[in-house]
Design a protein that fits this description.
about 400 residues, two-stranded antiparallel ribbon, single chain, 15 helices, mainly alpha, globular
């Protein structure tokens, strides 16, 4: 995981009735031909999310250059017109590895807790407080075959962090959660059945999509899947018992390009939300240097996310209509779903408002605080359901 990469893996499914595919493809090609002129691209050149510099997403729609803003305005207008069924998920790579590395963890008999809550706390700890050494250990195959090494290093780091945040008021809930996490980890042991290497799997995307289809009352046997050329994803989707699964080249398949733009938009906004300098805490290179980190100051997203003009504001309304309001989303795959919930909350927080209501908030400069409260409530609501309504306890 590099500083310029997203911690989560984004999966997007965008579907249409088979009988409408040709008509929708023609609409998309007409849109694409028109929009390429904005970017001075020839008809044979492919327009992709990678053509849009990250600075266009730094504060969401507000920071987009005019051509990029125009692209998304017309792109989501097209989607709203053709009304596809859209499902997207964000799978935490760190949680996925932790669950695999610690799959043989044996918990003490005096520990009664939700496994989902345990892996949520452990994942959040690693995302927020990982050192270079700790992250390197997680991704090393030698550690994966000897998870006790990772367990020991986590406990060392956790002890230091607990000592540092114990008396910080805004870290009270986090402190209590990490104390419980520490007790579980210190008393846990391992079975001896350890594989040599853990590989990232794309099967969770297939599992989630199948759950989504059940919510939609759509039979998987009636679905023909077309994916961009990627062997691992192709192999995973073949396990879903669909009508058919095939790979195609996005250069030849217009609707694959459209799906890629949805995925790129979700990923870029999540990356920007978590790399906002006003919100992001300083990284920890060495645990011995933790005292140099300011963990007492409350972090809020920049006001720039909410400094929207009357012209740009309606795009959030439109994206909310296309991605959230008219779509039946399902529970995230990962226990750690903060990133997915943050994206949805940003779109909903702005997208459900009208301009007059929103502009009144803007004059108070309180939107970062209001949004933070809105997001915290969404996260709390989700985790109460995920952790404490299930029977997933040890």
């Amino acid at each position: 995981m590099t500083p310029d990469s997203l911690e989560s893996y984004i999966g997007v499914f965008c579907g249409f009735p088979t009988k409408d595919t040709e008509k929708i493809t023609l609409k998309y090609l007409a849109f694409e031909s028109k929009i390429k002129k904005l970017f001075n691209l020839s008809d044979i050149q492919e327009l992709k999310t990678e053509n849009f510099h990250r600075k266009n997403f730094r504060f969401g729609i507000q920071s987009m250059g005019k051509p990029v803003f125009q692209f998304y305005k017309e792109f989501f207008t097209l989607l709203n017109e053709v009304k596809p069924i859209i499902y997207f998920d964000c799978i935490s790579k760190i949680e996925f590895l932790l669950r695999k590395v610690f799959r043989n963890l044996k918990f003490s008999n005096d520990c009664i807790f939700s496994k989902d809550a345990f892996f949520y706390s452990l994942t959040k700890f690693l995302i927020n407080y990982h050192t270079d050494k700790l992250l390197a250990l997680l991704f090393q195959p030698t550690t994966q075959s000897n998870p006790g090494v990772l367990q020991k290093e986590i406990n060392i780091t956790l002890e230091t962090i607990l000592n540092y945040i114990e008396n910080i008021k805004r870290k009270e809930k986090e402190y209590r959660s990490f104390v419980e996490l520490q007790h579980i980890l210190v008393t846990a042991t391992f079975d001896l059945d350890i594989e040599e290497k853990v590989n990232f799997s794309y099967s969770p995307n297939c599992e989630q999509f199948l759950k989504f289809l059940r919510v939609q009352n759509i039979s998987n046997k009636s679905i023909s899947i077309v994916i961009d050329n990627e062997e691992n994803t192709f192999n995973a989707m073949q396990q879903g018992n669909f009508l058919s699964v095939r790979q195609d080249d996005s250069k030849q398949c217009a609707l694959l390009r459209g799906t890629d733009f949805i995925s790129g938009f979700v990923g870029r906004i999540i990356f920007a939300l978590y790399n906002d300098e006003a919100f992001k805490e300083n990284p920890i290179s060495d645990i011995n240097d933790i005292s140099f980190n300011d963990l007492e100051t409350k972090r809020l997203r920049s006001k720039n996310w909410f400094k929207l003009t009357k012209e740009r504001f309606p795009l959030y309304n439109l994206i909310y209509e296309v991605l959230l309001k008219n779509q039946k989303q399902i529970s995230p795959y990962s226990s750690y779903a903060d990133q997915e919930i943050s994206f949805q909350s940003l779109i909903e927080y702005i997208g459900i408002q009208d301009w007059n209501e929103f502009s009144n908030y803007n004059t108070t400069s309180m939107n970062p605080e209001y949004f933070n409260t809105f997001l915290c409530e969404k996260i709390q609501e989700y985790y109460n359901y995920r952790f404490y309504s299930s029977q997933n306890y040890c």
